[in-house]
Amino acid sequence: RSGGTWASHIAHQLRMRGANPEFFWQEDVVPWLDAHQELFGVPAHQHPQPCLPRLFRATATCGDLVDSGVLRAEGAAELRSPNASKVVYVFRDLCDVCYSLFFYFPALFQVDSIFIQLEDFVWCARLLLVERSLWSLVHFWRRRFDPGVLFLFYEELMDDDDALSDHGAIRRMADFVVGGGVPEEELERVREQTRHSVMSRDDNWDRFSGMSVAVLVSERLGVGYRYELEPYLGKVSRIGGKTGQGRRVLGEAIREMFDEKWATIVTKELGFHDLEQM
Length: 278
Known about the structure:
By secondary structure, this protein is mainly alpha-helical. It contains 12 helices and 2 strands. A two-stranded parallel sheet has the order 1-2. Helix 1 crosses helix 7. It is globular and about 45 Å long.
């Protein structure tokens, strides 16, 4: 819900040199680093991939990636090899993330969201998400010039018009993921293939849904798969929230809670009073 699906698709299309997508579900070509074995019974690093570089998705924090050896410790000597791991980090306003999760998570676990109050859901998400995410933002921001880290905001992925400029998301990802030198016609194909309007088409959106996980969840729970919930499983928004909608829809008490957490973590550590300042 923070742009991981979008960034993964851009990276995959870049390594495929703009070839037409042929995967059934995105997990088939970009496995979850921290959940693939639990979900599908095979470690992520053993899952076959169509070509190099190998790509993985993760919800891990910066500290998790350091502990696992994916990232070097901050301040450690720079000894990068050409095959060293790299991390693309995307941050989105947490009000929007929580509002989007409100539509996605219940369907993922085969529960109708009409039985869940939005404010109750967000207060629960606060315990699991907010502090962890803000600390991860702080740590990745401090490492944004690390050659093994590409730091992006969700809004940069949305900017189709600027995507191929020197500071655009797709060109920066091309330089970072595949090493640059990508022909302009390939970059243009990737831009077209990764537009929101293309990814959310009726004949395309389910590639990027959580349907594969929802099927497994329904099997493990011993309940029938609920097809009527599929529209809510799209990771490329078709029903869920839009950028900026979370802050408009969530109640004042919830917004104040998010702002308080921001002040005690991000403002204290980095000096930024809100996301726009960054």
